[in-house]
Specification:
Blueprint (H helix, E strand, L loop, with lengths): L5 H11 L3 E5 L3 H14 L3 E6 L8 H13 L5 E8 L2 H10 L3 E4 L6 H17 L3 E6 L19 H11 L3 E4 L16 H10 L4 E3 L7 H9 L2 E6 L1 H14 L5 H23 L6
Parallel strand pairs: 1-2, 1-8, 2-3, 3-4, 4-5, 5-6, 6-7, 7-8
Helix pairs in contact: 2-3, 2-10, 3-4, 5-6, 6-7, 9-10
The protein binds 1,3-dihydroxyacetonephosphate (13P).
């Protein structure tokens, strides 16, 4: 099965009304775990890495590994650059063969976000890649370094933004946050429904770690097609490794990392109902 465009994966999810997990990876072990989970469950997969994570996993090293793993997977896999902030890195991801990029201009004013997103969308299209963008502000931050307030995505703004930028997927802020939630996440399904009624592109839910199965079910019912999961996988790897430590050799540690990543990916795929779709 070839590396596919994220747009194709999302179109299948839209047709059959389910959600697709976009799982963040930081190492070859995590890539292998995520792909094996998707193959075992016969689920499509989005493999992703965010720009802020490149200080730990440089793009020129992990990017080719993600693309290679996608190309030889037995299920459709899209390789996505998450929270692209700079044109330089978005360009590098596209050159590496990523089939999708997110441009995150959510910190700008609406007009500036539109202008920058249009530029990055044009660049992505030159490579035949899918483009995701964000409007409103998801809480927390991708690497836990900043504690941003949630600013809900406005309905009229979402409509104007998607029309002006012609993006393929829109990340919304509906009370969701990156990292660990303080207490039970309170998602604004009323706002999600309003956006879904007015906007005609697949919607993306960031901050998937810690949302309940019921929260996912309702979100998917209201147009969410891509769900980002990062912290839950990193935490599962760390807790599994801690539980089984001390290790006497590197390779049993390596296998635990791969298996723990796979477990978390499978758990989420089942909640998103993307299993058994192929
Ligand atoms: P979590 O770390 O909360 O799962 O968020 C992941 C995410 O949204 C990446 O963009």
């Amino acid at each position: 099965m070839p590396l596919v465009k994220m747009k194709e994966i999302l179109a299948h999810a839209e047709e059959h009304r389910y959600g697709v997990g976009a799982f963040s990876v930081a190492s070859m072990e995590m890539i292998m775990g995520a792909v094996s989970a998707a193959e075992e469950l016969r689920s499509p997969l989005i493999l992703q890495i965010a720009e802020v994570r490149l200080k730990h996993s440089p793009l020129h090293l992990i990017g080719p590994a993600m693309v290679a793993a996608a190309k030889e997977a037995a299920v459709p896999v899209a390789v996505h650059f998450d929270h692209g902030l700079s044109e330089e890195k978005i360009h590098e991801a596209l050159e590496t063969g990523f089939s999708s990029v997110m441009y995150d201009g959510s910190h700008y004013s609406l007009n500036e976000n539109i202008a920058q997103t249009k530029k990055m969308a044009a660049l992505a299209r030159e490579y035949g890649a899918t483009i995701e963008a964000e409007l409103g502000q998801v809480g927390g931050s991708e690497d836990g370094s900043v504690d941003l307030e949630v600013l809900l995505t406005g309905v009229k703004e979402a409509q104007a933004f998607t029309a002006a930028t012609e993006i393929d997927a829109l990340a919304v802020a509906i009370g969701n946050a990156h990292g660990v939630y303080n207490g039970e996440p309170r998602l604004r399904f009323d706002r999600l429904e309003e956006i879904h009624n007015e906007v005609d592109v697949p919607l993306v839910l960031h901050g998937g770690s810690g949302i309940s199965e019921d929260g996912f079910r309702k979100s998917i019912g209201l147009g969410i097609r891509k769900i980002n999961v990062a912290t839950a996988t990193f935490n599962q790897v760390v807790s599994t490794v801690n539980k089984n430590a001390p290790f006497t050799d590197y390779f049993s540690y390596h296998e635990q990392v791969t298996a723990a990543a796979a477990e978390n990916v499978k758990r989420h795929m089942r909640m998103f109902k993307s299993d058994g779709r192929l």
